[in-house]
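2024-03-11 09:14:02 INFO worker-7 job=invfold-0412 stage=load source=structure_tokens
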């Protein structure tokens, strides 16, 4: 059996090698010709699997029986086209949600530090309460923040839960986090959900973060608002037109990263393992590998805190010991200078530095520091 995998998928040979020959191809280069003879295709979010690709693959002699995406999102997959051809499909819901939440908390902590405040002084509106948004909501609430959610589909399905309308949320929140999938039509369309009118209506001083889908936010309107008044703090991990993103907008936002919010090694391996298990079931083979089999020990597994650190300083120290979002902001800026925007964007993703999740770090502290334990646990660390 021939299995085509995105070259950025870790442990692919170890997992999918059980099926046969594994051929790694850069995600943006997967086309019909590269799928010749393939029976399985494993992708990430940058590969569009639609009727055109499937038809080209069939002309090249592909015999696809399984397609998997090692990602939460599925808007790059034409599931109807797969179903018409009898091709099994699986995604990896929740695989990198914790990594995205780590990214958001790290980014908010950095913005707070730059403004001389702490994030518990902000009111956070979360737009999209799916795998990522709901985890973010629970973590920020545990950290003591005032949070509200907007999710119209969930509001309809769960009338007992409290959700808010988008415009109401935008008026109330001074931090707005977007975590919606891209939906281009229907009653809950999210394309340009944050359009020019809503961007213009945001109160000065609002923090705006998008780690969902780039097309859910009108980048041109945001660039115009920032160029004119510069009165918003912005964190963008996803962009319209990736990888050839708007260079002018990148220069204006506070934190600009190349769609890597979920790029922890743990999240990637979790996605690989989920799709591996689905593929084994599709081909009626035993699932031999678990996440524990794939994940190596973290390079920093334990940190001991001394006395005297204020709580939010201690939290920032622990977060940065595991992941510092400034590395990814600076890396994108450097790659854009060295290789140009589009190539630099993909280069940072392709050679992404090792990153683990907060949960891989155990924090040790003496009796003097026990009061810090609830805050650190709420942020996702293990405390001893």
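2024-03-11 09:14:09 INFO worker-7 stage=emit residues=384
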């Amino acid at each position: 059996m021939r299995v085509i995998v995105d070259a950025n998928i870790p442990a692919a040979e170890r997992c999918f090698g059980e099926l046969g020959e594994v051929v790694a191809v850069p995600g943006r280069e997967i086309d019909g010709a590269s799928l010749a003879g393939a029976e399985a295709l494993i992708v990430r979010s940058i590969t569009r699997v639609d009727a055109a690709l499937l038809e080209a693959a069939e002309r090249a002699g592909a015999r696809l029986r399984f397609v998997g995406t090692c990602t939460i999102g599925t808007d790059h997959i034409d599931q109807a086209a797969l179903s018409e051809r009898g091709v099994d499909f699986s995604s990896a819901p929740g695989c990198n949600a914790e990594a995205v939440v780590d990214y958001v908390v790290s980014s908010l902590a950095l913005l707070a530090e730059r403004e001389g405040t702490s994030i518990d002084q902000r009111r956070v509106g979360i737009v999209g309460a799916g795998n990522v948004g709901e985890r973010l909501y629970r973590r920020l609430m545990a950290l003591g923040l005032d949070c509200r959610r907007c999710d119209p589909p969930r509001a309809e399905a769960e009338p007992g839960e409290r959700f808010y309308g988008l415009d109401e949320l935008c008026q109330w929140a001074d931090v707005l986090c977007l975590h919606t999938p891209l939906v281009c039509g229907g009653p809950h369309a999210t394309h340009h959900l944050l359009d020019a009118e809503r961007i213009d209506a945001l109160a000065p001083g609002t923090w705006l973060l998008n780690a969902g889908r780039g097309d859910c936010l009108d980048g041109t309107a945001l660039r115009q608002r920032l160029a004119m008044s510069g009165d918003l703090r912005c964190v963008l991990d996803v962009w319209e037109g990736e990888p050839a993103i708007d260079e002018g907008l990148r220069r204006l936002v506070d934190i600009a990263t190349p769609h890597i919010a979920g790029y922890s090694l743990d999240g990637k391996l979790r996605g690989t393992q989920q799709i591996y298990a689905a593929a084994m079931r599709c081909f009626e083979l035993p699932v031999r590998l678990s996440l524990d089999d794939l994940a190596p020990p973290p390079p920093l597994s334990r940190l001991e805190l001394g006395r005297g650190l204020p709580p939010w300083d201690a939290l920032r120290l622990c977060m940065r010991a595991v992941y510092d979002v400034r590395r990814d902001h600076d890396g994108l800026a450097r790659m854009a200078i060295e290789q140009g925007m589009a190539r630099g964007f993909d280069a940072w993703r392709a050679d992404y530095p090792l990153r683990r999740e907060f949960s891989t770090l155990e924090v040790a502290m003496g009796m003097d520091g026990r009061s810090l334990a609830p805050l650190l646990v709420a942020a996702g660390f293990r405390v001893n």
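2024-03-11 09:14:09 INFO worker-7 stage=report msg="The mean pLDDT is 96."
2024-03-11 09:14:10 INFO worker-7 job finished
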